[in-house]
Amino acid sequence: MSGLALGDRHSRPLDGLGDVASPKTILIRAGDVSGAVNRQHLLVCLVNLLARLHGLVGSIRVAVKGEMTVVTPNGAGPANAFQAVENLASWANGGRIPVLPPDGVEDLTIDMTGQMRGGASIYVWGEGWKAWIGSAPRAFGGSFGRRDCLGPYLAAALAAGEVFKHAKGLKKGRFARDDAYSLWSGESGRWEVLEDGPAVSDTRLPPLYVVGAGAVGQGIIQVLGASELASSFLVTIDHDRHDLEGTNLNRCFLAGLDDLDRPKVEAVERYRTFSGLGGLEHSGTLRDYILSSRSGLHPKLDLAEARDSYELVVSAVDINTSRQDIQGLCPRVVVGGSTDGLRAQAVIYGLVEQAECLGCWNVPDDGRAKAAAAREAALRAMSPEERRKELAGQVENLDAALSYLASAEPRCGQLGESDVKSFVDRMPPEFSASFVSMAAATMAAASLFRVTSGLSSDVNLQPKTILQFKNLSMAKTVTARRSGCAHCCVVREAGSPAKLG
Ligand SMILES: [Zn+2]
């Protein structure tokens, strides 16, 4: 085992949470999962999330019986359920957070059996398009009919979120009591009254683009692959690699230890192949993709691209210049998934008149440039000793960087300039956590299924769904256009709003 400190981005300070985390031993009571596809999905997703919460989860004890038949991020079944999740965890983290049999000593117990048995701190259930999380047991029939992963995956995200809050300590917000969610209606409330959506297995997904194969993008692809679709074709575009330090692995669901320093689209291709999704990957930026020549493209996309036309694009990028690039293609419909701290969000762009486009409010901010300038000014204000301490180990050529900072009127292109510029441009890494990304991914995938199942003509469509883990709320809303948005001024050829054909 290497000395990598895998993915601690969820350990960064966050308003409303405690500062010190203590690793917890988690017991998952899963029961016999043979034939219970919804609980298999829930267990797979939950273990994959907990196995990435380094520093918060010490080990995962799993009480489970039976066979696992659903696809997992590291392979396809069937397999003994315990072995399947044991392999999944060691693939994801190299044994750092192991899956072990129960030994009677645990800090937190998660019960996902759907039966009235006390003694757990977290109860969770997911089925169809719905998810439930609570602090007291309740019975959920014995319906083993639904094969969808949407509700179970969201339920897993909610359960991992509760573990996170328990491990960190909560100063603002609350723990789950009896909270249900529908990815169909985008609402939270009581389980009995929330509307469920139709089965997605065996449905046909129109060919589409997924731009961004980081946490949210991989989560969306995981959902699509686990949804047993009749047909699909995803063009996944991402230029990035899973970083060598392993900081991506706290939330890149389709990546294991062996994927470090490998392109993110490689992990996507592997999972797509064994989960039966159609498609191709492009290891490069969206701009590179547009300029590249490609073979093996879906004929429908091939024809559309020849006309410079993009029907359906999933935006799973995390920087605003990339969002501008996507909107710059004038796609007819964009489904976006994103996170901000403990908030997950999914938005359908292009179907509601006068509602925002992806480019409206995601303007590349000059805040970053200003912050970089401020950091350089702060460096210049330091004493030479302080500067040396600040930059040591952070730049390639320390002496050149120090001499650049020491010159009162530095020349453009002076030795050391690029070192200093890249140092001040590196922002402190932001908070990000596996379960928030997975929630955004399930919400975006649900939005995608809604859009492609013909609900695009719903005049009351509220395109934006927001889930806040701190207070466990989920709500729909609509955000108006920004006047002056360059993209919204482009007149659509076939009138607005768009309809998927
Ligand atoms: Zn706009």
Description:
- With 501 residues, the chain is of the alpha/beta class.
- The protein is built from 13 helices and 20 strands.
- The chain has an eight-stranded mixed β-sheet with strand order 7-2-1-8-9-10-11-12, covered by helices on one side. An eight-stranded mixed β-sheet has the order 15-14-13-16-17-18-19-20, sandwiched between helices.
- Helix 1 packs parallel to helix 2, helix 3 packs antiparallel against helix 13 and helix 4 packs parallel to helix 5.
- The longest helix is centred in the N-terminal third of the chain and has 19 residues.
- The termini are far apart.
- The structure holds zinc ion (ZN).
- The site of zinc ion has 8 residues, from loops.
Structural key phrases:
8-stranded mixed beta sheet; transferase; Rossmann fold; 30% helix; binds zinc ion; 3 domains; alpha/beta; ThiF family adenylyltransferase; 501 residues; single chain
Net shape? globular
Reported CATH architecture of the largest domain: 3-Layer(aba) Sandwich
For the CA atoms, what is the radius of gyration? 23 Å
What's the CATH superfamily of the largest domain, by name? Answer: NAD(P)-binding Rossmann-like Domain
The top-level CATH class of the largest domain is: Alpha Beta
Q: Give a count of the beta strands, DSSP E runs of length 2 or more.
A: 20
Major sheet size, sense and barrel closure = 8 strands, mixed
Helix tally? Answer: 13
Domain THIF-type NAD/FAD binding fold: 209-475
GO molecular function: nucleotidyltransferase activity
Keywords: Nucleotidyltransferase, Transferase
Pfam families: ThiF (PF00899)
